[in-house]
Amino acid sequence: MVYPVSYNDYAKKTPLLDRFIRYALIPTGSDPESAASPSAAREFDLARVLESELRALGAKDVTLSEKGVVTATIPASSGAEKAPVILLNSHMDTSPEASCEGIHPQVAEAWNGEAIALDPENKIRLDPEVFPELRRHIGEDIICTDGRTLLGADDKAGVAAIMNAAEWFLTHPEDPHAEIRILFTPDEEIGRGTDSVDVPGLRASYGFTIDGGDVGGLESETFNAATARVTFTGISVHPGSAKGKMVNAAKLAARFISLLPESESPEETEGHEGFFHPISISGGVEHAEVILIIRDHDRGAFEDRKMWLAALVQNFDTGRAAPAQVVIQDQYRNMRDYLAGHENILDLAHAAYRDCGIEPIEEPVRGGTDGAFFSAKGLPCPNVFTGGLNYHGIYECIPAQSLEKAANAVIAILRRSASLTLNS
Q1: Side-chain half-sphere of 71: how many Cα atoms within 13 Å?
Q2: Cβ distance 207 to 379 under 8 Å?
Q3: Is 272 annotated as a binding residue?
Q4: In terms of domains, do 292 and 263 share one?
Q5: Which residue, of 289, 312, 331, is where some domain finishes?
Q6: What does the record note about the cofactor (predicted)?
Q7: Distance CA 61, CA 235 (A)
Q8: Considering the entire predicted model, what is its pTM?
Q9: Is 330 a known active-site residue?
Q10: Neighbouring-strand partners of residue 63
Q11: Does 137 lie in the same domain as 10?
């Protein structure tokens, strides 16, 4: 068993790691139940920090909108003024699926491959038997949680990598680079990250989201995605006289979930395999609601999934109660559909990775990024790794060395942007 030390006691801090931890300690969880924009006022706390830091670094056109969107510009280096403008984007919010309050980062230094005791008292361990991808990082310094909150590497590692690059090019303007547009967005985790972004107003020709996972990841294919809200209306009667009268909406919802194919759930699928995933069940006797997400890389299979779910609801037996109802809403499409013809953008990233001694690994994203939305709006935007692992929960972590590699890759991409010619 490995017992990590507090980040405060970690001996190998760097400015990049300190920057990441500083951002991670600011609670920015988004709220899917809120109609506000941003969904949680606390998202402004990090946005204001980034706005202030960008101004202090000397970035141009720094803005923080009333919707919590931060933008800035770094002028092109001499001789690269005609190169296509490049966008860098990360999101500031963290997943609402785990607490973001009171984050206490820890570090397992020179990790030896044994389980990491996040919270010894409650026997919460980061175990490579459960998370085998950790084994790729034996010998590295694993930044992890204390078992009570998420860490925030998704996507504050991306934010830190972009800010690190901003500082580099603003203090080394002679280092070749195209004009850089920086964009930090709220509410990505609840599917609203680009709702308040004026894509044409960004004046960028292409870009990269810095929102990926393990080292080497370069993602140009996402899920097709939709949400489904299924509602059940029961019949409430006093329990003492309910026989033959009551219909319990909560029990209807539970029975409905049991009809979803277990083999087509997130925990049973990988690669290009799609799924149905109930993310919320709420209610009582009179009213209950199930919220699901629907995912598939293949467009045809995605449409089939939506039709199958709609038919399941339509044919669901509610007995004496009113029929169940469903509203299905598309969220985003597979980014692959929009990147055809823009292979030279991926070629640029491949070359930049190799400049840093990193071999690119192209795999489908089992999720989505704001880049999928940008790509759909005519701004091709693949996704670059941050180094983080096990997002959206208490087992989230990031090897310190992986974050350093991500930051180096971002700088290398920007260097190569100075000489890129886009396909027409």
Answers
A1: 18
A2: yes
A3: no
A4: yes
A5: 331
A6: Binds 2 Zn(2+) ions per subunit.
A7: 58
A8: 0.87
A9: no
A10: 71
A11: yes
The range of the structural domain enclosing residue 285 comes to: 224-331
Same domain membership, residue 216 and residue 102: yes
Given the residues 140, 141, 188, 404, the one annotated as active site: 188
Phi and psi (nearest 5°) for 377?
-100, 15
91 labelled binding-site residue: yes
Would residue 424 count as lying in a domain? no
Counting DSSP H helices and E strands in the chain, the numbers are 9, 17
The SS3 call for residue 219 is: strand
Same domain, yes or no: 160 and 240: no
pLDDT, tens digit, for every residue of 382-391? 999 999 999 9
DSSP SS3 for 229: strand
Q: Do 176 and 297 have their domain in common?
A: no
- Joined together, the tokens standing for residue 56 give 């202090």
Binding residue per annotation — 189?
yes
**Number of separate domains in the chain:** 2
Using DSSP, state whether 142 is helix, strand or coil: strand
Residue 211 known to bind ligand: yes
- 188 as an active site residue: the answer is yes
Is residue 392 marked as binding?
A: yes
pLDDT digits (tens, 9 = 90+) for 166-220: 999 999 999 999 999 999 999 999 989 899 999 999 999 999 999 999 999 999 9
Both tokens assigned to 371: 């880049």
CATH of the domain at 76: 3.40.630.10
Question: Is it the case that residue 42 has pLDDT exceeding 70?
Answer: yes
User: Per the residue annotation, which of 93, 146, 214, 404 is the catalytic one?
Assistant: 93
